[in-house]
Amino acid sequence: MTTATRTIRIATRRSLLATTQSEHVAALLRDRLGVATELVEITTEGDRSQQAGTSLVGSSTGVFVNALRDALLAGDVDVAVHSLKDLPTLPAEGIALAAVPPREDPRDVVVARDGLTLGELPAGSTVGTGSPRRAAQLHALGLGVDVVGVRGNVDTRLGKVTSGELDAVVLARAGLARIDRLDVVTEVLDPLQMLPAPGQGALAVECRADDALVEALAAVDDVPTRAAVAAERSALATLEGGCSAPIGALADIAEGEEGPELWLRVVVLSTDGSLSVRRSASAPLATDDPQRWEDAAVALGASLAEEMLAEGAGRLDETDPHDPATPPNPSPDPAHEAGSAEVHNA
Ligand SMILES: NCc1[nH]cc(CCC(=O)O)c1CC(=O)O
Predict the structure, then answer these.
(1) What is the pLDDT of residues 42-69, one digit of tens each?
(2) Quick check: is 108 catalytic?
(3) Nearest to 298 by CA among 21, 69, 91, 68
(4) Cα–Cα dist 17/26, whole Å
(5) Contact present, 277 and 246 (Cβ < 8 Å)
(6) Is the predicted ipTM greater than 0.90, yes or no?
(7) Whose CA is nearest to atom 3 of ligand 1?
(8) Which of 59, 137, 144, 248 has the fewest CB atoms within 10 Å distance of its CB?
(9) Pocket test for ligand 1, best of 47, 85, 86, 131 (most atoms within 8 A of CB)
(10) Domains, the chain, with CATH or none
(11) pTM score, two decimals?
């Protein structure tokens, strides 16, 4: 049976954000491939514990991804759509990342009471986020705000500001854009202050590796987006081998004098934001062969991350900044312990 004659079953989580993302990909597939599509709702372990009101503090994002992949491997669905930043860096057996559609604006945003920006919030204001990356960067800004852990879907988090429980929350702009709630944004954060999570704003379209769909789905792949997220995730994968600290990364393609160039910025912070290693690098991209961009991107991310580890990025949480005996910029330790492969959910 050719792909043109089958109905493509697309797995989705049940949240508004997830169903909106999956429907977006379904529309792309109908449009580009002329296929019929059907959304199939999958309840994940993470959704169940959120419904039960239990906290998922420190949970790995794999929770949200595995149930969809299981449905894929079982043949219950043909395609799974994820927020790319929620995917663990390790590839999954039997599963292909068949397409990365064009990315949304990857930046983080503030949703604060009374239209306020971060800088306008009085000291002692409460700012909600469940992301160690956002918490560390908020602390690093030195605003004197109180960073409070929050869990739950985008609506739940917005509700904490509406109800007055929190003064502000920090969220991905892309999530709000997808559910058409950009009206609540009071500040878009400059990546200089808040580097997004690797892959933020991008979608991952997966299918079984042995399915002919792998080739067909290339129709919704965006080469520049794939290269950018490949660089970010390659840096993340390399850094995870040496640390479990919060990581922000953002890559972009700019037109240089000699042709397109890939730019990558990465930050690793101590959990409390008091220490950080920040680096950027660029690499030229071959104009004649965009398919080679991904390889160049992976190499750039890995080499930048290696440099950062050599600078002590893997030891930020081991250093006590208040102890004059420990240097603020720890020297490289070739024997650093392997960190966990956990990717935090945001
Ligand atoms: N953390 C969960 C999550 N996973 C993807 C998004 C938003 C969409 C995206 O970043 O692609 C969000 C919400 C958020 O971080 O505000």
Answers:
(1) 986 666 655 544 444 334 457 779 999 9
(2) no
(3) 91
(4) 14
(5) no
(6) yes
(7) 346
(8) 144
(9) 85
(10) 3-101+202-221 (3.40.190.10), 108-188 (3.40.190.10), 226-318 (3.30.160.40)
(11) 0.88
